[in-house]
Amino acid sequence: MATPHLSAQDLEDIERAVRAAEVRTTGEIYCVVAEESSDYHAVPLAWAAGVALLAPAVLLLGGIQVSAPDMGMFGGWSAEQVEDIGEATARAALIGTLMLQGLLFLVTLFVVSIHPVRRALTPRGLKRDRVRQRAEEQFLAKNLSATRDRTGVLIYVSFAERMAELIADESIHAKVPDGTWDQAMAALVAGLRHGRPAAGFTEAIQLCANLLADNFPARMGDNPNELPDAVVVLPRA
Fold first, then answer.
1. Average pLDDT for the chain
2. What are the φ/ψ torsions at residue 132 (nearest 5 degrees)?
3. Are 150 and 159 in contact (CB under 8 A)?
4. Number of structural domains, the chain?
5. What does 133-151 look like in DSSP terms, one character per residue?
6. Please, which residues have CB within 8 angstroms of residue 224's CB and are 6 or more apart in sequence?
7. CATH code: domain of residue 130
8. Model pTM?
9. Of 43, 87, 107, 146, which is most buried with the most CB atoms under 10 A?
10. What is the rounded CA–CA span in Å between residue 146 and residue 171?
11. What is the DSSP letter of 25?
12. pLDDT of res. 90
């Protein structure tokens, strides 16, 4: 299934690259792409609450101040009457502040709920966490940990965040340090940033295949294809 980022030809090219790579190794390379890894539904609420808390500061910056009534203004008034006026003034100021906070909350919630705005205002660290979390979910859901030799490799891309994750099973971790994959990931991310995701995928798959072939070479006559080679396309979270 083609996506706004990968054409049918792109998907075919990536599948072909996976198939060619797995001829050289007992490793299994599995590619998953997502339009977005999370809806980040809590982000608008967090921004709205934060902006609403600024209401008192907005009032002060606007020159609006609340002060106690001048006692000299109330000559002939009783202390009780003056106290009532002071309470009314404070109450009005409090109500005004609360109304402004409510308005700021609603306006900010509406604006940040607009999808492009929400995406832009989501902290990068949160995006990274969500991409990693969904990649881990896919690793388990697609049974990459169930290959015969525990040599599954997941290449996961989330287009909205322009981020990628590579997860390798335990047999690979035992022989290949994490940093070994940096070159493959750099090629993949470069392809995403330059609008050439299929080329980034293909180069990353080839680099992964080189590492896997060195450590887990194919066995003649005993190299089953345990996982599909086609790219899995996930809907928006």
1. 84
2. -65, -40
3. no
4. 2
5. HHHHHHHHHTTGGGSTTS-
6. 148
7. 3.10.310.50
8. 0.80
9. 43
10. 12
11. B
12. 61
The two tokens of residue 220 are 């003649």
d(CA 171, CA 163): 25
Per residue in 50-94, pLDDT (tens digit) is 888 877 766 566 655 555 455 455 455 555 554 555 566 666 666
For 150, left (φ over 0), alpha (ψ -120 to 50), or beta?
A: left
Burial of 193 (C-beta count, 10 Å sphere; 0-12/13-18/19+): exposed
With bands split at pLDDT 50, 70 and 90, how would you rate the model's confidence at 222?
Answer: confident
Name 33's bridge partners.
157, 233
Angle between helices 42-52 and 79-113 (to 10 degrees): 150
Contact 166, 156 (CB under 8 A): yes
Which helix or strand (DSSP H or E) is residue 157 part of?
A: strand 152-158
| Distance, CA of 156 to CA of 189 (rounded, Å) | 11
Strand ordering across the sheet containing 232-234: 163-168, 152-158, 28-34, 232-234
Q: Does 1 fall in a domain? A: no
Q: Does one domain contain both 67 and 22? A: no
Q: Phi first, then psi: what are they for 114, rounded to 5°?
A: -65, 125
Q: Is residue 2 part of a domain?
A: no
